[in-house]
């Protein structure tokens, strides 16, 4: 039994229900242009018929005309129809009057083809809600502005193709859009300020393209935005202060761009942020203490970005943090003692900075992080002999002497030379002299 709507149930054995001849012919045209898995006309005279339905399509029975209509098509990956090497973009999909979703995955891989629309035909009535063309290495050319005439489109996914050119401004007039994913393509140019018109957007992914210029401050209008990924482009400028209005944002990735300067004004207000990934940018400012207000943060990655000054003590308030990556910056001062209280952290990398003083962790902290703690290449860090932890497990080979003076463990334990011993005695003397001078 196939139950199609509240009041219609059609038995598998029922007499074949004819499809609309125009729709059927369009369907054969699409199938034949994409797939030579079989002789579709001969094998499937009635592609929607229950029991002998085509692989990769879904149909719906509509009572008003007592016919089946195609609502979804899937191509490219088993069990869906495979694509032949000469497959070209099936622009006739935009003429199917009931089609709501199209998925084309790893289909156009050999003959270059472009997204196109039927010539001289009116497709503005297309009910298409989801268009997903993913991992098609031979899908080239520009995004046609006509995409914006699909008035029902909610999800547009063009990820991992070879689409190029600037993102047409018309796309940013599509207020129905909930998800826009143009990642891993060859798109270039600046991101137009009109992106701020997509007020219903929940997810925006423009990562891994060649986009330049600043992040438009109009993005602050996208109050429903939960995921924003613009990593691996050539964006510059700073995070606009308007980002503080993005209080639905859960995931923000801006890694591997050319962004610089202080962005602390953008931070308060991002109260739902759980992932903040911004490695590999020429920031060259201090770490914004405001990040400590983002209590839901689980992953914070700010490595390789020229941050200087000390690690704000407020970071110790990020009690849900599981990953903190601050390696390869110019951070100085001590590791905040409160880091020892980060009870959910399991990956902490502070290597390649200029941090100093005693490592504030104890044996149970060490046991939890194991090899995921990296404090190496901070020449000023030392391990207190009383802490009960082995510094070489996480890249610190100095032990703390009295008064914060550090002594290289390898030298302190060396017995073949008396020089380190003399040095140690000298330092202790200096320490006592300066101590008695103060008091
Ligand atoms: C296309 O069809 C819509 C109705 O579905 C109509 O409003 C519109 O004027 C038509 N456009 C053209 C160019 O014929
Ligand atoms: C940002 O990049 C654009 C385009 O490459 C350039 O014109 C502009 O001068 C850059 N701005 C800054 C602040 O670096
Ligand atoms: C921390 O994570 C736990 C478990 O996922 C969650 O219940 C809690 O609300 C989070 N705390 C904050 C401040 O978001
Ligand atoms: C760790 O947390 C405890 C309990 O909240 C607090 O008393 C202590 O001062 C904290 N330690 C540091 C170094 O912040
Ligand atoms: C290690 O430090 C944490 C946090 O300060 C504390 O809760 C825990 O009791 C300490 N464990 C040991 C074995 O000292
Ligand atoms: C920490 O970062 C350094 C520098 O990028 C890297 O080489 C190292 O593998 C990282 N350590 C861990 C434990 O992830």
Automatic annotation (TrEMBL):
Cross-referenced Pfam families: LRR_1 (PF00560), LRR_8 (PF13855)
Superkingdom: Eukaryota
Record protein name field: Leucine-rich repeat-containing N-terminal plant-type domain-containing protein
GO biological process: defense response; response to other organism
A cellular component term, taken from the record's GO annotations: plasma membrane
SMART domains from the UniProt entry: LRR_TYP
Keyword entries, A-Z: Cell membrane, Glycoprotein, Leucine-rich repeat, Membrane, Repeat, Signal
Natural source organism: Genlisea aurea
Localization terms from the record: Cell membrane
């Amino acid at each position: 039994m196939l139950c199609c709507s509240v009041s219609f149930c059609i038995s598998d054995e029922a007499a074949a229900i004819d499809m609309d001849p125009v729709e059927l012919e369009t369907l054969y045209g699409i199938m034949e242009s994409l797939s030579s898995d079989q002789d579709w006309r001969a094998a499937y005279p009635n592609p929607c018929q229950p029991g002998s339905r085509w692989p990769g399509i879904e149909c719906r029975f509509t009572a008003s005309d007592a016919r089946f209509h195609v609502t979804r098509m899937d191509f490219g990956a088993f069990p869906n129809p495979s694509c032949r090497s000469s497959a070209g973009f099936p622009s006739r999909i935009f003429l199917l009057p009931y089609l709501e979703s199209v998925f084309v995955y790893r289909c156009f891989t050999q003959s270059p083809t472009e997204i196109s629309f039927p010539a001289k035909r009116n497709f503005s009535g297309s009910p298409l809600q989801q268009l997903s063309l993913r991992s098609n290495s031979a899908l080239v050319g520009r995004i046609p502005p006509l995409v914006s005439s699909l008035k029902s489109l909610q999800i547009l996914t063009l990820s991992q193709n070879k689409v190029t050119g600037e993102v047409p401004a018309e796309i940013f007039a599509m207020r129905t859009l909930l998800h826009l994913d143009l990642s891993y393509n060859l798109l270039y140019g600046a991101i137009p300020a009109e992106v701020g018109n997509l007020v219903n957007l929940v997810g925006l992914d423009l990562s891994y393209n060649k986009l330049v210029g600043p992040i438009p401050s109009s993005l602050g209008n996208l109050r429903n935005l939960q995921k924003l990924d613009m990593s691996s482009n050539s964006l510059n400028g700073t995070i606009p202060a308007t980002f503080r209005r993005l209080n639905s944002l859960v995931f923000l990735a801006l890694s591997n761009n050319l962004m610089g300067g202080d962005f602390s004004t953008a931070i308060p207000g991002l109260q739902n942020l759980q992932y903040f990934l911004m490695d590999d940018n020429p920031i060259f400012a201090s770490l914004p203490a405001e990040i400590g207000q983002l209590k839901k943060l689980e992953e914070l990655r700010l490595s390789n970005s020229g941050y200087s000054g000390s690690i704000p003590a407020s970071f110790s308030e990020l009690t849900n943090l599981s990953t903190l990556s601050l390696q390869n910056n110019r951070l100085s001062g001590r590791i905040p003692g409160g880091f020892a209280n980060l009870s959910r952290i399991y990956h902490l990398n502070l290597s390649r900075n200029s941090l100093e003083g005693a490592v504030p962790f104890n044996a149970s902290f060490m046991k939890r992080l194991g090899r995921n703690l990296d404090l190496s290449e901070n020449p000023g860090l030392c391990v207190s002999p009383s802490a009960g932890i082995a510094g070489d497990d996480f890249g610190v080979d100095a032990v703390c002497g009295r008064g914060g003076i550090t002594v290289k463990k390898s030298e302190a334990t060396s017995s073949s030379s008396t020089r380190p011993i003399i040095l140690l005695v000298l330092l202790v003397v200096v320490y006592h002299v300066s101590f008695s001078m103060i008091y």
